[in-house]
Amino acid sequence: MAFQILLNIGLAIIWMLLKNDFSPIQFFIGYVVGIALLYVLRRFLHFDFYFRRVIAIFKLILLFFWELILANIDVIKIVLSPKLNIEPGIIAVPTVLKTEWEVTLLASLISLTPGTLSMYFSEDGKTIYVHSIHVPDKEAMIKQIHNTFERAIMEVTE
What is the DSSP string of 10-21? Predict the structure, then answer.
């Protein structure tokens, strides 16, 4: 990935030299042309296109902000309701993530979302114990974590 980024920057510099214009706009245009060129060449040189991972990182960030907004709305509803009709609980969330970094990122994203807190990891690191302020259906919450954060993390790291 680092080699592709350096190659893309080199292509942008070559673009600026060919245009004989050293402005940031020409660098950006050259960088976009380099991305397109690397995308076309990925079939012939047999490498994984690095910009796919950059897009996956942006999708993960946007997903986190969306889940943050939804969780804040849920917590506001709980706080402003006249009766506390909540069912707090601890859920064991099994994960298929392979590295410690991925599991740590998942636990951090869960903890940063209001109303949930990562409490403990299993000995093998494949299960995260999560406390939630309101858990009407444990299986639905586990499925939601798998379908949002875990899937987005796997897209970034694969």
Answer: HHHHHHHHHHT-
